[in-house]
Specification:
heterodimer; A: mainly alpha; globular; B: alpha/beta; six-stranded mixed β-sheet; four-stranded antiparallel β-sheet; 36% helix; 26% strand; disordered C terminus
């Protein structure tokens, strides 16, 4: 072991603040640089391909349209994508890397913002991939079965679809920020996405007044219009998305951000 | 330069850190010494903005930590070497720091060499590292931005004797070039070997601080004589406290010159007269912390 000259000292350099782009690039890298992180993101691509293959194998010939592919691929992606956002946030606490991260950038808001930006970038990339795999599936399906090629999705509907995915991802992100523990946040995500809508629909089936109220309370129900690929949303549907988004996403996110700013990192 | 002023941290009704003030000066290694649970780590977390103090403040080179534009270039921090994602490789962890601080890419391999991690070890995942290797990686991360100030919490934990020696030389050289080093330990020996200044803390409160030489002096003098009873009487007559060391000697607060004078006046022949170093500091450490220590050392 040699004596080290690793820390020359006194020359004072002009120090520039760390730009947000650089923090974001590092946060993006952190999503891929562990085996678990890498395979989680890789599984988006893998499951998209599997879902497309499933459609070709099992869907009836007259259903081999682009919207069928896009809808089928949505299911695995909508489960995995929010996990990416959850783990990006919670790993700072559960793996305790926050001890380093938050001392290298002592403004937690900037780290959280960088994580949000990199999560949304991943979501958009995943959507581009989904559309590409869906298109390939559609071409391949038509070629294999000899059915006519049907492109039944407009650009607007694609944008709806991306918006819906980004909102799902942000729900995961919000839960990560609010709960800051991997397992807790993942469980909460499944409760919010799968259990709660079931309860809401049972309630709606049981009582008329709740049935009328459901679009204003149930965030999944309010957003369902984003994924149907058949018509554009009405003003009221947009209002439903905004209201449920404020209640289920914005308010808890603000509470979570306040907790993140104030709590001790150990 | 680290300046801590009136730092207090309350958890409910428990005072974890109680009005702690001290400075760590450039060119010196300051040892932060105290038993486990004394408040060392809490104080260090407050220094780097991970914990909010109830009162008081800390400045580093005149600025609060949060005001440093790119802290990694000014303060190297190692709080817990095990607080790393087990799935990342050592090299990847250094690369993340290098990118975030905007340093040249060559810095990563330089630092790996500086802390004696081989390329093979650097490519392994941190989950497979020994604590000693994690400490080396943590020190590399702290030093990568070439900072002027180092804050290290128990950096010698898990290092073998050769590793401790290596770290001592590293920190010594760093301080000699004008750097400020603050390191904590619950082991007196580590601090005694490495530090120039010592801040001793027990139950959140500073119990002693000063340069190592001052503290050694404060530990007093060991004296032996043929006629121990008469010497003790003479010291007491001079208003000096004296206590038996238990092995045929006396310990007194007075310095050696004064004890010699007293012995001469009293006509007592001395057989030994020396500063109570080493063991004295240890005794002081136990003494000062026994009342505040968790387990409660025998007093």
């Amino acid at each position: 072991m040699t004596a080290v000259t690793a820390g020359a000292v006194p020359i004072r350099r002009a120090v520039h603040p760390v730009p947000l782009t650089r923090i974001t690039a590092v946060e993006l890298r952190k999503m891929f640089d562990t085996r678990s992180g890498f395979w989680l993101i890789a599984s988006i691509a893998i499951s998209a391909v599997l879902a497309a293959a499933g459609v070709i194998l099992f869907a009836a010939d007259d259903e081999l349209t682009y919207s069928t592919f896009a809808t089928a691929i949505r299911f695995p992606v909508v489960i995995i994508l929010p996990l990416v956002a959850i783990l990006a946030v919670t790993s700072e606490w559960s793996q305790r890397t926050g001890l380093t991260t938050f001392t290298m950038v002592p403004h937690r808001g900037r780290i959280i913002a960088a994580k949000a930006i990199s999560s949304v970038l991943i979501a958009i990339a995943a959507m581009a991939l989904t559309f590409a795999v869906g298109a390939l599936g559609n071409l391949l399906g038509a070629a294999v079965t000899g059915t006519p090629l049907v492109w039944d999705v407009t650009i607007t509907q694609c944008l709806y679809y991306v918006l819906g995915m980004v909102l799902s991802l942000l729900i995961g992100f919000m839960l990560g920020v609010l709960i800051r523990a991997s397992i807790g946040a993942v469980v909460a995500y499944f409760v919010l996405t799968f259990l709660l809508p079931t309860i809401f629909s049972l309630l709606a089936a049981g009582s008329q007044w709740f049935h009328d109220l459901q679009p204003w309370i149930d965030i999944q129900f309010a957003q369902s219009g984003l994924f149907v690929f058949d018509k554009s949303l009405t003003g009221e549907q947009w209002a439903n998305i905004v209201v449920t988004g404020i209640v289920w996403l914005v308010i808890p996110l603000l509470i979570g951000l306040r907790l993140v700013m104030r709590t001790e990192v150990k | 330069m680290i300046t801590v002023e009136g730092l207090t941290k309350k958890y409910g009704t428990t005072l974890a850190v109680d009005d702690v003030s001290f400075t760590a000066a450039p060119g010196r290694v300051t040892g932060f010494l105290g038993p486990n649970g004394a408040g060392k780590s809490t104080t260090m977390r407050i220094m780097v903005g991970l914990t909010r103090p109830t009162a008081g403040n800390v400045t580093i080179s005149g600025q609060t930590f949060a005001d440093l534009p790119n802290p990694g270039l000014e303060v190297g921090v190692l709080l817990d070497a095990s607080a790393q994602h087990a799935g990342r490789t050592g090299r990847e962890i250094l690369t993340l720091a290098q990118r975030l601080m905007g340093l040249p890419r060559t810095r990563v391999e330089e630092m790996l060499a500086a802390v004696s991690l081989t390329p093979g070890e650097a490519s392994r995942r941190v989950g497979e590292y020994s604590l000693g290797m994690r400490q080396r990686l943590g020190i590399a991360t702290a030093l990568i931005g070439d900072p002027e100030v180092l804050i290290l919490d128990e950096p010698a934990n898990g290092l073998d004797p050769a590793g401790i020696r290596w770290m001592r030389d590293l920190l010594r050289g760093y301080a000699d070039r004008g750097g400020t080093v603050l390191l904590s330990s619950h082991l007196l020996h580590e601090i005694e070997v490495i530090a120039d200044d010592i801040v001793m803390i027990g139950h959140g409160r500073i119990v002693s601080r000063g340069s190592k030489t001052e503290l050694l002096q404060a530990a007093g003098t060991i004296v032996r004589a043929v006629d121990l009873v008469r010497l003790e009487q003479a010291l007491t007559d001079w208003g000096l406290s004296a206590s038996a060391t238990g092995d045929g000697g006396l310990r007194t607060e007075a310095d050696a010159a004064l004890v010699g004078t007293v012995a001469l006046e009293a006509g007592v022949a001395l057989t030994e007269l020396r500063a109570a170093e080493g063991a004295g500091l240890e005794e002081m450490f136990l003494e000062l912390t026994s009342t505040t220590q968790r387990e409660g050392a025998p007093s």
